[in-house]
Each structure stands twice: as C-alpha cells, then as structure tokens.
Description:
Layout: E1 8-12, H1 17-21, E2 26-29, H2 34-37, E3 45-49, E4 58-69, H3 83-86, E5 96-105, E6 121-123, H4 124-127, H5 135-145
Parallel strand pairs: 1-3
Antiparallel strand pairs: 1-6, 2-5, 3-4, 4-5
Amino acid sequence: MESRSVNHWVVRVNDGFNLINSKYNVFGLVRNHLGMVKKMKFGDKIWFLTNKENGGKIIRVVDFDYYYDRKNEPFWNVHTYKNEEIGWKEDTEWDIQIHYNNIYEIESLDICGIFRGAAVVYSWDTVKTHFNKNIKDEYELIVKYSGCIKKNN
C-alpha cells in the first residue's frame, strides 16, 4: 500500500493571541477560507505564522486532525466552540474550526516569512520563496530536537 505524501500549509494568525490562548487544540477561520481547509488531510502539517507587525514568524507547527463548520451545528455546539468558551478575543465568527494535535512551539527558531496576499491559508509550495528556511527540511529536526508540548486534547 502506497502512503500519501504529507502536505505543508502556512496559516496566518495575526498576533497569535487566539492560537496561543485557545483552551483546546483548535484554531478558527472565517468561512471564506473553507475551500483551502477542505484540501487539508489528516496528518498534514500546519505552520502558524504571525503577521508582519508581530515579526512574520512561524510560532507553532501542528498536525492537522480534522475541521468542523459551525453551520453544520445549527442548534447547539457539539464539535465547535463559541469564542468566549475557548478563550478567543474579538467577536469575529470563526465558523471553520481546525482541530489539530502534536503541537511544537517553535517561535525561537526564527523561521520567518513575509509576503503579500489576502488569503490566510496557503500551501507551502505557493509561499516557500518568501521564507528564510525550508520548513520541510526543518520539520524532521524540530520533531527530533524539540519537545512536543501537547499531544492532543
């Protein structure tokens, strides 16, 4: 049986507050990013990138698990969270919620990338020329030498 290749994704997280302060292994996106999220597969790597004002640094890398859409839970939340219960600031409707595991805190590695674009979710291949390091090469070293800070919820 042939194993599939793992894809790498870069997700912009503004200042990273909601990512760092989330009570669960979940990150929220607005609905217009659903198309890119649907392309993610279990085990893909998500690299969370702060905005230019906050250094344009990758602060975490995680393994994608699955996503849920709040609109699929019209009566009560079973698989998704409200902003206040998860610890997110702002009143933004984070309807698409990415669940992940195997969190590596890597801000100190200074993997940086700054690029223009309106999107929040990018495949690595579309933005790799804007980074100071190749994240695919770095990933094996991160796993080998960095401690995973949280396996799963």
